[in-house]
Structures are given as C-alpha cells and as structure tokens.
C-alpha cells in the first residue's frame, strides 16, 4: 500500500507538563521550561512539516480551566504527544490516540 500524506492532514496535540520555573527541584531552580519547549517545537515543525501541531500552554499546576481547554483540543486531534519537561530520570514522552475520559 502506497501511503502519501497530503500537507497538514494529520493534527497532533502537543502537551507539556512541568514545574514552574522558580520552583526548587530538578534539574535546578530557574530551569527555563520555555527554552526547552521552543527547541522541541522547532524540531517537530522542521522534521515533521506535513503534520499540523497544536501546542498547549505548559501545565505547571492544576488549572481546571487550562486542563478543560486542552481536553477540548485533544478531542479535535488525531493524536497526542505529552512531554514531561524538567523532571529527573529518563525523558517522559507519551504518544497516544486521543481519549478524553478524564474526570473533571
């Protein structure tokens, strides 16, 4: 089967989860989440330019309004990528098909 993707046929919701910049912890106080996020965005946009990426605001605290907006965005997407930013251990990346069976 020969599959050719047309421009922007696939929509992926990209979600970032991390600590607030000035919260103590790994990797260090003042870690710049935005610098890391911008690097990831640049790489995804350049490397996978036939995919439409929608980037959510980073989730650093439980914000019901933000989480509900991201849930709505996920429902419109073909897939999800979740990046855990600024935590110790191996990088946390989750890739999945959309499902919003979250409890509010």
Characterize the structure shown.
This protein has 104 residues and is of the alpha/beta class. The protein has one domain. It has helices at 33-47, 64-75, and strands spanning 10-18, 51-55, 79-85, 92-96. The chain has a four-stranded mixed beta sheet, with helices on both faces. Strand 3 (79-85) and strand 4 form a beta hairpin. The radius of gyration is 15 Å and the shape is globular. This is Caspase family p20 domain-containing protein.
Number of helical elements: 2
Estimated radius of gyration:
15 Å
Q: How many distinct folded domains? A: 1
> Biggest sheet: strands side by side, in what order?
2-1-3-4
* Class by SSE composition: alpha/beta
Order of helices and strands: EHEHEE
Number of strands: 4
Strand content range:
25-35%
Measured between the Cα atoms of the first and last residue, the distance is: 42 Å
For the largest beta-sheet, the strand count, sense and barrel status come to: 4 strands, mixed
